[in-house]
Amino acid sequence: MNAQRTLRRAISCTGIGLHSGNKVTLSLKPAPADFGVRFRRTDLDGLEIPANVANLAGIQYATGLAREAGTVDTVEHLLAALASLGIDNVVVELNHPEVPIMDGSSAPFVYLIHEAGVKRLAAPRRFLKVVRPVSLSRGDKRIALYPSDHFKVTYSIAFDHPLLRHQSRTIRITEESFVEEIAPARTFGFLKEVEMMRQQGLALGGSLENAIVIGDTGVLNNALRYEDEFVRHKILDVIGDMALVGYPIIGHLVAHRGGHALHTAFAARVLEESDAWSLVEAPFDPAADDSAVTLPIKNAVQAN
Q1: Which residue, 57, 186, 260, 285, shows the most beta carbons closer than 10 Å to its own?
Q2: What residues have CB less than 8 Å from 230, skipping those under 6 apart?
Q3: Sheet of strand 90-94: strand arrangement
């Protein structure tokens, strides 16, 4: 994964916006080297919103971006899939200001990337390599990045609920580990919060088909995909939010009781503390054959 990558061909899907409840068409399209990830609102004359911290907006239960008169919400699950599968450059076309929630995980987006195929570009990939610790705390919530030889995430959560008093996981993020162990983990919420959210115009498209709903005594869905699916989804979220720094990270990310507001504030903090990291290029062979690029897609990523 030393060369920048994009998709071989365009691919589309339709789904429901988790918070808006509206039907959305999403298309992923190839882009040239150094283009980055850009959301393109086809309903706003093609207005583009680059996926970076400079365009952060509306962080409430999901991560949103804004530029000029355009917005795009709930970007984190798609960004996690793109970042973890090494897609550096892509156009994300939307006809509505919200990425479809699909099944509440990154698995459907992994499947789309697999179907589109991956194309190697004739430009080296640049990595953000952490050289000294960076941290951010807000009350009992905290997040930090430490030097490491690869990208690794440690996440712990604690809620006032019998199912979620404590869960923790550490995982080295590779294409294969993300696809098999993180991508299928679904978003979750508490039943008691649903009515409050809907009064605020949120979660209008939420259902047991696209989220884990936790009642007073247990999960309302038929079954969990993993015993610790909740903390796995938090790892998914933070990967997507940290993708807004604009480069793949080489470092150990450690978070406790975080959420989108903390994740995205930390992404901005990392870029501000420019002496804490350096941009490095891995060895690059422009003559290498991109036909060898494959993705380890397993049955676990098929949308349920």
Answers
A1: 186
A2: 157, 163, 164, 167, 185, 188, 212
A3: 11-16, 23-30, 90-94, 37-41, 47-50
Q: Which residue, among 188, 181, 119, 135, has the nearest Cα to 157 in the 3D structure?
A: 188
Which is catalytic among the residues 96, 233, 260, 263?
A: 260
Residue whose pair of structure tokens reads 């975080």 in the numeric block: 258
- One-letter amino acid for residue 202 of the chain: L
Angle at 158 between CA 183 and CA 149, to 5 degrees: 50
Distance of CA 104 to the CA centre of its chain: 12
The per-residue pLDDT for range 223-272, each reduced to its tens digit, is 999 999 999 999 999 999 999 999 999 999 999 999 999 999 999 999 99
Task: Identify whether 252 is a catalytic site residue.
Answer: no
Q: What is the pLDDT of residue 58?
A: 74
pTM (global) more than 0.85: yes
How high does pLDDT run on average in the chain? 92
